[in-house]
Amino acid sequence: MSHYLFEPPAVFSLEVGGEARGYPLRRIFCVGRNYAAHAAEMGNEVDREAPWYFTKQVAHAVKSGAVLPYPPGTTNYHHEMELAFVLGAPVFCAGAAEAQAAIYAYGCALDMTRRDRQQDGKDSRRPWSLGKDVEGSAVFGPLTRAADFGAVAEQRIHLKVNGAVKQDASLAEMVWSCGEIVAHLSHYYHLGAGDMILTGTPAGVGPVRAGDTISGGIDGLAGVSLTLAAGA
Ligand code: MN
To answer: How many Å apart are CA 146 and CA 27, to the nearest integer?
Structure first.
């Protein structure tokens, strides 16, 4: 007999290239405005003092290839293509070099966003939860171990909607490096295995509609895709 009043949800895990076992996800942190060109298209400037964050619940994560309905509560659902990475070791109050060494693997991610609800939050100076923490809005491809991916440099990051290129940039455009992000965040959280960080999106974000297929990629990583069911 179970100890619980209802069956707990299964652990969400991602495939890792070359590993028989999956990477179980615990937390998802997302960096805002990490590409100057995207900050500009949203009418903002990049904050050069420090990176900043919002979060998504792991319960709202899905694997690449998912087919989901267009979400409720929005008429302006946007795609954001991002580099994600996960940690493999504890990091707390660390410097950038120690933080970088704790990165276990990289992957492609979609940070799907209710842009209208995010704007409501900005206008009312309230949290972005309804804009960002959307069911099915964190879409992840399989992970590639850091040792296999190599250094983040000038890899191309791109996204297509129904085959048409919408986002096309270089990871070299990131304002804050992965190590810098982890080091900064480690002054607020006891980070470690199970923690994922999304590193922000380049320019070219835009709306998607029911029936659209969104597919993204980064040189050297497995791609990510999401289909919004037609007529939903
Ligand atoms: Mn984002």
So the answer is: 19
What is the C-alpha to C-alpha distance for residues 216 and 223, in angstroms, rounded to an integer?
6
d(CA 131, CA 120) in angstroms, rounded, equals 8
Which pLDDT does position 44 carry in this prediction? 86
Structural domain boundaries in the chain: 13-228
The predicted pLDDT at position 202 comes to: 97
User: For position 219, what pLDDT does the model report?
Assistant: 98
Question: In terms of Cα–Cα distance, which of 149, 146, 119 is closest to 131?
Answer: 119
Ligand 1 mean position, distance from CA 91 (Å): 23
pLDDT at position 1, please? 60
β-strand partners of 111: 138
In angstroms, what is the span from residue 148 Cα to ligand 1's centroid?
A: 25
Paired tokens of 137: 């809005």
Cα 7 to averaged position of ligand 1 atoms, centre (Å): 32
Q: What would you measure as the largest C-alpha separation in the chain, in angstroms?
A: 56
Q: Which residue has the tokens 């946007």?
A: 78
pTM as predicted: 0.96
- For ligand 1, the distance from its centroid to the CA atom of residue 128, given in whole angstroms, is 12
Q: Per-10-residue mean pLDDT for the chain, 232 residues long?
A: 88 97 98 91 85 97 98 98 98 96 98 98 96 98 98 98 98 97 98 98 97 98 97 66
Beta-bridge partner residues of 156:
170
Question: In the CATH hierarchy, which fold is given to the domain comprising 13-228?
Answer: Fumarylacetoacetate hydrolase; domain 2 (3.90.850)
CA of 51 to the centre of ligand 1 (A): 13
Question: Using CA atoms, how far apart are residues 16 and 32, in angstroms rounded to an integer?
Answer: 26
